[in-house]
Design brief:
Layout: H1 8-19, H2 29-33, E1 37-38, E2 41-53, E3 58-61, H3 63-66, E4 82-94, E5 97-106, E6 114-117, H4 126-129, E7 137-139, E8 143-148, H5 149-165, H6 171-186, E9 197-201, E10 208-213, E11 219-221, E12 223-227, E13 233-239
Pfam families: DUF4241
InterPro entries: DUF4241
Protein name: DUF4241 domain-containing protein
Length: 249
């Protein structure tokens, strides 16, 4: 755990909330990934390739709004550097109407026994004392990503160069939109024609930026660490649609 930049007060509150169970998830996400139905809705698992974590310091954010921002803090917990699979659980809410429920990266092929809210060390933890069930990351462009902090820096440079070459452009409309449409043609399952996800390889690198449609769009979404019996982090999960409450259409 990287706590060098965090106040003692924050750490003390974090530890207290953990002992009170206020950092726990309200659902067993690993079990849901093994289900083919939830709340009477069919579930499917959608593989999305792999993500490279050169340092194991992880950032989750809205890629179009925040990935190129000045300051992207990583979570206080870290994982072993490596390349890991990413997949998404999809719900069919109506005939041929799909929404993404959970996205996870799997670090170890072990069974999770507990989940903990992923935090960065600067959050106002009083929200959890005041009855909020989670603190989430903001989505303003309907997308989410999970990347290494090295990938953040590489993407910032890509974004800078793109806008330098396209000063009047819009990186989604003029660049990513076509990639989403092409991925929908190549992988049509559980996507709209305009595309609902890509796993973007930053040019001239081996780094990937998965961009995943976030549930019902903009909002705040929680991220959880999954721990196995040995106390090791085995997964990280983004929850787009509550798995404790029946989803709306």
């Amino acid at each position: 755990m990287n706590t060098s930049h965090i106040t003692k007060e924050w750490i003390d509150t974090f530890n207290r909330l953990g002992s009170e169970g206020k950092l726990k998830a309200t659902a067993d996400y690993d079990a849901i990934f093994n289900l083919d139905e939830l709340f009477g809705k069919k579930l499917y698992t959608l593989p999305m390739g792999h993500v490279v974590f050169p340092t194991g310091h992880i950032v989750v954010c809205d890629p179009l709004t925040y990935l190129a921002a000045v300051d992207n803090k990583s979570y206080i917990r870290t994982v072993e550097p490596g390349t890991y699979p990413i997949e998404t659980k999809v719900a069919e809410l109506d005939t041929d109407y799909y929404r993404y429920v959970l996205t996870r990266v799997v670090f170890k092929d072990t069974k999770p026994v507990q989940y903990e809210l992923a935090l960065k060390g600067h959050e106002d933890l009083s929200e959890l004392d005041d009855g909020e069930s989670y603190i989430g990351f903001p989505v303003d462009a309907g997308l989410a990503t999970i990347v290494d902090k090295v990938t953040v820096d590489a993407y910032k440079e890509f974004d800078r160069q793109w806008y330098e070459n396209n000063p009047d452009g819009n990186i989604y409309d003029d660049y990513f939109d076509e990639l989403f449409k092409l991925n929908a043609l190549a992988n049509p399952k559980f996507q709209r024609s305009g595309g609902d996800w890509i796993n973007f390889n930053i040019p001239d690198t081996n780094l990937y930026v998965p961009m995943v449609q976030s549930g019902f769009g903009d909002g705040l979404y929680p991220v959880y660490w999954a721990f196995d019996e040995e106390g090791d982090i085995c997964q990280i999960i983004i929850e787009f649609i509550s798995c404790s409450d029946e989803p709306e259409k």
